[in-house]
Write a structure and sequence with these properties.
alpha/beta; Arc Repressor Mutant, subunit A; D-Maltodextrin-Binding Protein, domain 2; 2 domains; 8-stranded mixed β-sheet; two-stranded antiparallel sheet; 10 helices; 10 strands; rod-shaped
Length: 298
């Protein structure tokens, strides 16, 4: 590689272009410089190498044997460099990194992702389901789904829909729940890491969490939901987590009311990076899926 230090890259490009195109004018047009600049670059390269690379003729520039050998290798090398740049661009356009909370990934996104892949097989999606918030400005993440009050500073943020919760349980347990007050007589499943309190749903009913009895406790919302499906108790679940399970009859909402939490789902992306096609397609697809689920988007 040390030989590359002997000639400037612009000189190498000039040599390759002139040998391939035959004239200074054509090479200048491709390189977007003047013919004089191309001539100077070649002269400097010849001086640095101590070799005559071209014969100056009235009809154009003819490479010497040394020039032809060098130009052939340069054409091959620049072709490889062009392919490398094209591969990087292609890979970036065809890849999408999405950061979502583990419970949303497991309970909503992963089940529907094959439908996106079916519509856009050219886009490779990678799901980052880390618990911590990711900064799209300083990471390779293209799109984040956050739940919070928003709006978020220093990023692009689009509100998707309101975050709502409701009690869910197995069908057999639902038979024991005629009114909200009956929640005092069944096991209550608790997510130890949830920021949503049962009072969010109970208060509009004139009740509070003090009526609730004990029940299984988990540090993961997805496990809480599994426990509810298994008949272990009643869980205060996010609206989006139970849609397919409810459609299949594995879990039911004994009371129809969904309680707003004061938070929303937000699509977040880098502030200074314009959304690419893959990102726009994914956002549009998510909105379509949510609307199909009966979620009011916007």
């Amino acid at each position: 590689m040390h030989n590359l230090n002997r000639v400037h890259l612009s000189g190498l490009k000039a040599i390759e272009a002139v040998a391939r195109l035959g004239t200074l004018a054509r090479a200048a047009d491709e390189l977007q410089v003047s013919p004089g600049a191309v001539s100077q670059r070649i002269a400097k390269a010849e001086g640095a190498l101590g070799v005559v690379l071209f014969e100056r003729r009235p009809g154009g520039m003819a490479p010497t044997s040394a020039g032809a050998a060098m130009a052939g290798l340069l054409t091959s090398g620049f072709g490889q460099l062009s392919a490398a740049v094209g591969e990087a661009v292609r890979d970036r356009r065809a890849s999408l990194v999405v950061s979502v909370a583990p419970i949303f990934a497991a309970r909503w996104l992963v089940q529907r992702l094959p439908r996106f892949s079916g519509k856009h097989p050219e886009i490779r999606v990678r799901i980052d389901s880390a618990v911590g918030l990711v900064d799209p400005n300083t990471s390779d993440v293209d799109l984040c789904l956050r739940v919070g009050k928003g709006p978020y500073p220093d990023v692009r943020a689009e509100r998707l829909f309101a975050h709502r919760v409701m009690p869910v349980c197995a069908p057999e347990m639902a038979e024991r729940l005629r009114t909200p007050a009956d929640l005092a007589h069944v096991p209550i499943i608790r997510d130890l890491n949830s920021a949503i309190d049962w009072n969010t749903w109970l208060a509009p009913e004139g009740l509070d969490a003090s009526i609730l009895g004990p029940g299984p406790e988990f540090s993961d919302g997805s496990l809480c939901f599994d426990a509810a499906m298994g008949g272990a108790g009643v869980f205060l679940a996010w609206e989006t987590l139970d849609l397919q399970a409810m459609a299949a009859g594995r879990v039911v909402a004994p009371f129809a009311r969904r309680a707003p939490t004061g938070q929303s789902y937000w699509l977040v992306s880098a502030r200074d990076r314009s959304p690419g096609d893959a990102q726009r397609y994914f956002m549009r697809w998510m909105k379509d899926e949510l609307r199909a689920d009966g979620i009011a988007v916007g």
